[in-house]
């Protein structure tokens, strides 16, 4: 594990953030390059890429594909000039579905048959919620969001299958309609909630015991609101055990040049 | 060519329409099973399916993928029980990029490596325009819509590349904003227009000479409005000359069970 946590630098632009990570800074990307879309990263050999692309096509809520690269190319239209092998702060390497290491760059692991998938991230809609005066409790509490496995299965694609994973944010009841409308206008970053109010409707037994992330404290009058979560494809991938995969490390996303507004419908 | 044009039957539901086509009726699908989404069909060998799926992911306006089948399966979640080999009224068979025949069913041509792509169709948004009291001149004039090649290139994907093809509908100037808003809420069936008002901005020299379809007469005060068109993937495909492909015949679409409302954002 490499964890050279640096002093908070000025990472006000996407290119400045990527340059800092490329130079070795390892730090979560949340709050950096504000106003710009951050993305989840999944890299797979071409042999598995069809399954992943089809999984995304069939499950756009949990797997909103923002860009998919040509095999062997570490470049994306979402950030011309960026290099996906070096420009994230921290990567995870998986073999046969097992996490084997975390590394700050993957140049030495790159292969000509690798395809990179950039997937929408809830950071984008959390900012939109804040812009609409909807409180985001996990940000207020300085915690990772609470995530849960559900009893809903994704549509399988080839060798990839798995349950829908959701994130939960407690929202004041009178602001639930605003939260639904705001995120409903962002279908490429998970879109409208998949469920409001009744955890048992998703097969979630205990909100205080999330499967991923941290428990979030609700305020009086808050209602639990559930969105499809970008952990879904990672969970499906790890259950399906491809021989080789690379992902971003949680919270250490790819910072794109795309303004958040690019993914907000009018 | 098979053209057993039947007397207009009652095809009020998607399953009745598909059963009629399965039984041999060859007729355009426009106006049948009203309120239900119709789809363009492209069938390709698995070897070319990655290129097509990626082309759709990268060019969602002209190539909005509604469903993609498993290799060898003629079934789709958009119409459980339907058979894509028999349930369209008329198919086109292509070899090395050349149209070789039109046939009313493709059972004998089916192979275990074929993947079917169902692609959103402008019929869906024309109904939405009518619902919003926006006149649709091509329907008024009983003509196929006018379509034009443009000077805009699609993002290539593997062996697939080509220019954006657009359809044009003349819209009264005061209703252009309504037309933009209504179709903008339907991103899975081509979405908002790509251009309004200035054909030369798309490299179109003469509106009276469309590259596909028929010339549409504008009324006084109409403005030409251009939408990304589902002919785009077919044009790219034929230019790229895959050894084998099957598509629907123009106007002879796949009638799905999906209500049009499924593709309208609130």
TrEMBL record, chains A, B:
Its EC number is 4.2.1.-. It is an enzyme of class 4 (lyase). The keyword Lyase applies. Keywords: Lyase. Belongs to the D-glutamate cyclase family. The keyword Lyase applies. InterPro entries: D-Glu_cyclase (IPR009906), Putative_hydro-lyase (IPR038021), UPF0317 (IPR016938). Signal peptide: none annotated. It comes from the Bacteria. SUPFAM superfamilies: PSTPO5379-like. It comes from Ornithinicoccus hortensis. Pfam families: D-Glu_cyclase. This is Putative hydro-lyase FB467_2326. HAMAP family: Hydro_lyase. One of its GO terms (molecular function) is lyase activity.
């Amino acid at each position: 594990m490499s964890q050279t946590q640096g002093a908070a630098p000025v990472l006000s632009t996407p290119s400045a953030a990527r340059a800092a990570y490329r130079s070795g800074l390892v730090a979560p990307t949340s709050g950096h390059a504000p106003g710009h879309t951050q993305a989840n990263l999944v890299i797979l050999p071409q042999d598995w890429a069809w399954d992943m692309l089809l999984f995304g096509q069939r499950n756009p809520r949990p797997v909103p594909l923002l860009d998919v690269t040509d095999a062997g190319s570490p470049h994306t239209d979402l950030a011309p000039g960026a290099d996906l092998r070096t420009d994230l702060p921290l990567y995870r390497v998986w073999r046969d579905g097992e996490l084997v290491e975390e590394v700050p760059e993957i140049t030495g692991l790159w292969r000509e048959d690798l395809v990179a998938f950039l997937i929408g991230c809830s950071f984008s809609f959390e900012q939109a919620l804040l812009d609409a005066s909807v409180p985001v409790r996990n940000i207020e509490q300085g915690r990772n969001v609470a995530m849960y496995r559900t009893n809903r299965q994704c549509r399988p694609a080839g060798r990839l299958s798995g349950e829908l994973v959701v994130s939960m944010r407690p929202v004041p009841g009178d602001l639930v309609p605003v939260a639904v409308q705001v995120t409903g206008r962002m279908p490429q970053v998970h879109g409208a909630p998949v469920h409001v109010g009744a955890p048992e409707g998703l097969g979630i037994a205990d909100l205080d015991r999330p499967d991923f992330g941290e428990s979030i404290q609700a305020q009086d009058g808050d209602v639990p609101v559930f969105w499809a979560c970008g952990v879904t494809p990672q969970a499906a991938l790890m259950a399906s055990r491809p021989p080789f995969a690379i992902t971003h490390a949680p919270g250490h996303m790819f910072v794109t040049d795309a303004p958040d507004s690019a993914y907000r419908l009018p």
